[in-house]
Amino acid sequence: MPISEFDLIQRFFNQEKNNRADVIRGIGDDAAVLQPPAGQQLVVTTDTLVAGQHFPENTSPFDIAYKALAVNLSDLAAMGAEPAWILLALTLPVADKAWLSEFTQGFFSLMHRFQCQLVGGDTTRGPLSITVQALGFIPNGKALLRSGAQAGDPIYVTGTLGDAGLALADLKNKVDILTQEQRSALLTRLNRPDPRVAIGLALRDIASSAIDISDGLAADLAHILAASQVGAVVEVAKLPLSKTLLALQPEKAQQLALSAGDDYELCFTVPEARESALKQALEKIACPYTAVGFISKESGLLLQGENGEPFLLEKQGFLHF
Q: Degrees (nearest 5) of the Cα angle 295, 211, 143?
C-alpha cells in the first residue's frame, strides 16, 4: 500500500521530540519557528546532491544521507559557525520504506553527532535528489570569510587531499592497484566526509580567510584569491597525501590532491603573527593540518614543483556545469 507524504514525514522524519531549546516549533506546521540566540549571527548554506552527478547510482541510502548533510556542515565549518538547524528537501522516484529507513539512519547519525535538529523540509516524487539547508550561529562579526587573506599569510589545509578523487577513479575502473582494504577506506572518505566543525570553531579570531575543499584545492583556493585580491604560491611537494595515494606515481597523486573534489577538508590562511595561537588552538583537536604555501602580492595561483619549477595542472577541479 502506498505511503502518503504526511505518513512518510511522520514515520521517518518526525521521529523525535524537540531536542533544542531554540526550536520553538519544528516539524508539523507550515513553517518552523526558531529563536536565534542573542549576540549571534545566522549562517545559512544549501547544497543539492543529484544521483549520478554527485554520487554513484548504487550508493547506499545511509551514505547518500550522511554525505548530503556532511557537505552542508562542511560549509558551516568553513565559516566558523556552530551547526544548529537542518531542513531537508527529498525527491524520490518511489517512497520505498526500506530505503527511507536506511536513509534516515545515516542522516540522523551525523545530525546527532553535531547536536542539530531537523526542523522542516519537503518531500516530492521525481528523480532522486537531496537538498539540505543547514543553519548555524556565529558571534557577531566573527564569521570566517574568503576575503581576508593578506600577502605573507601561510596557507594551511586539514587532513589529506585526493582520497575521494582516487575513490571515484577506482569506481570508474581508472586504477587497478588498490587492495580491498584500501578501496574500503577510500570509499569511506568519499561517502562519509568528516565535517571539520571543531577546526572551524577554533579558527575564529585566528584565520584571515577560509574555505572548504569541495571542488579541489586549486579551484577552491582560487576563490580565496579572487575575494582577497591576492595571489598564492603552493608547494606541491608539501601537499598532505595518505599512504594509499602515495602508492601512485608522485605526479598522479599530486594532480588528484590539487584537482579532485569531494575532500571536504578546510583550506585557510593565518597571519604569521598568529601561528603560535593556531598551534595552541588546534593541538587538542584530532585532525592534522599542513602548511602548503603562502599568499603573495602577485595575482594568480603559482603551483611550484619540488625543484621550484612550475607544476602544470591537468584538470582545474570539479565543474558544476
A: 100
User: Tell me, what DSSP letter sits at residue 17?
Assistant: -
Q: Is the separation of the CB atoms in 260 and 190 below 8 Å?
A: no
Helical (H) or strand (E) element with 87: strand 82-92
What phi and psi values does residue 83 have, to the nearest 5 degrees?
-65, 145
Buried b (16+ CB within 10 A) or exposed e, 55-72: beeebebbbbbbbbbbbb
SS3 content of the chain, % helix, strand, coil (to 5): 35, 25, 40
- Output b/e per residue, 143-168; b: 16+ Cβ within 10 A: ebbbebbeeebbbbbbbbbbbbbbbb
Identify the pLDDT of residue 321. 37
**Phi and psi, residue 148, nearest 5°:** -105, 0
Binned at pLDDT 50, 70 and 90, residue 10 comes out as: confident
Q: What percent of the chain has pLDDT over 70?
A: 96
Cα(217)–Cα(187) distance, integer angstroms: 20
